[in-house]
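Checklist before submission:
- one chain only
- standard amino acids only
- sequence pasted in full

Submission:
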Amino acid sequence: MSLSDPVADMLTKVRNACQARFESVDIPTSKLKLEITKILKNEGYIKTFKKVTQDGRNLIRIFLKYDAANSPIIHGLKRISTPGRRMYAGYRTLPRVYNGFGTLIVTTSVGVTTGKKALEKKAGGEMICTIW
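Returned file contents:
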């Protein structure tokens, strides 16, 4: 099956798994998805992740994180830049997500990073998604 937007598919799988209270979700691997997953781990939205091979396919297994009331830590995921409409921003015009409570993921010339780190490095780029 050919996907036109694999990052949006990844975000949808994570969003649906959180709503269904799954312990983990498997996603086909790519360099960009792995970098997004590392940011999710560093920002505290997921417990952990690991790369696995199942039936000859490389996958990223993401272990989801819930609070004491069994509510998901990830309240929302939104894709900003799509294959049909790329959205770019300079470091001065990077938007804030929920007044700093959310995270913006940006791909810059220095790599895939959060909006806050891109602002510190003074590097703009393509806005991939927001997480809150």
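Reviewer check: The longest strand covers residues 46-54.
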